[in-house]
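Hi V.,

You were right to ask for the full record rather than a summary. Here it is.
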Amino acid sequence: MVASGKVNVKQLITHRFELEETVKAFDTAKTGAGNPVKIMIRCFNNDTGTANGCYIVPNIVHFVRFGRKPFTFVDSVCVLAAYKNQKPEIIFFHTDQPYFRGLYWNIILSTPGLGDIVRLKFARAPSRIFAHPLSFEWRRFHGGDIARLQILMEYGGIYLDNDSYIVKSLDEFRRFEMTVGWKINGNLSNQVIVAHRNARFLREWLLSYKDNYRAKSWFYNAGIRPTQAVLVKRPELVHRVSRRLAEYNGIASMLYLARTDAWREHYAIHLLINHQYMLGKNFSSNATYPVRFSERNIDKYPVTFRDMVYDVFPFAQLNTTRRAKFENNYEAVDFEGFNNETGSPSGCYIVPNFVHFVRFNKPKLSFVEAVCMLSAFHHQKPEKIYIHTNVKAVGKYWQVLAKVKGLSQVLEFKNLPIPREIFGQKLSSKWNVFHGGDVARLRILSEFGGAVFGQRQLFGPIDKPVQVFGDVVGMATREIASEPKHRITLGSLRNFEGNYEVVCELRAQTS
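Predicted structure:
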């Protein structure tokens, strides 16, 4: 349902709560073994909730993360707050990424008990809603708005924006069909939603897109239209919390320009971390905005938000996690504040020993290209050599390389079509192979890490300590030659630090 962006009509017209056994919707301590699992929705009262106070919303927390956006310090703070203060059975991350990486993600996984309940659920970002393609400009945001409704319709539970901080348990709202923050004379907030999976307003909210999707408006379908078109007419569809759930006027000033304990009176707070422009001023000459908060600078901001961080973030655990995850763990490094002059602590490697070649529309390997590939194998001794290509490799020099001892064990071909566009912009047809190669290099490094080399880039033995640095694009610091216009001959290689022997080996294989 989430992957396709389509609406299950049968589910939309359901008039009953139907609880799956796989989703523990009831707290047995409150409900008892004999509590009914079906509740008629038509007569449900969202002012009083369930008759005996039992829970009908599962204690599951949902976050949505589309795109390869790194986990930030604030992201981790909000996950830790949800874990500490809500004590959920499961925390789902609905994402189109195969995994997350970075220091802050590892903090989450290494927090006792938290890593045990974290689950990644693959979901494609919606690209359409009914017949409407989503706005290119707002696709990530509009897709997230739609995905949260679809996710809640599938699982039920508690949806949180990535910068929404649970202050105290939301369990009292699990007694209602659906709970939203909805200010007096205002529109609903969609940063925190508590809902049963068959809540009527979830259906109505999604259907409100059908005839009136405004692609150019950031918040219209996320808050304005569902309020004005549905809730104003049928307020009984939700349990309304007018204050202290997600947002209210002045929240940014309370968080970042003052220090008060008033935050503890809230249920949940939307941190507005990407809206610091609303502040209009700094807290002090040392505490300025906008800022990207981290464990290194939070102590300089004696404001309410700092107290919230101190309440949940495991600073004592941080150094242990940082050291442990730096030990040649290529997936775990967070580069916020990373020092590229000195490199990683203790000189450990953070870039995997992979070599990448990108070859578009070139099935045959030339003699010079074979020399360069073989020199990479001999001097770098990589764990993997990846050939990213859109064609099948043919010709004698591929066969020659296959005979080189040990090379075939590390050589792996990856099918990769030539990129035709970047961020919706078509690449030049004239320069497509070249511009597509430029784009492909960045995408490959984003996915694998390692070192990308040109087809005719020849180098001597690389000083391995170069691997401790974060920027790997120019990793080959001792490049020898690139042969743009002239042939490299055996004689010209005699002074190239071992590559003469490489060529001799290649010639020996061909003879």
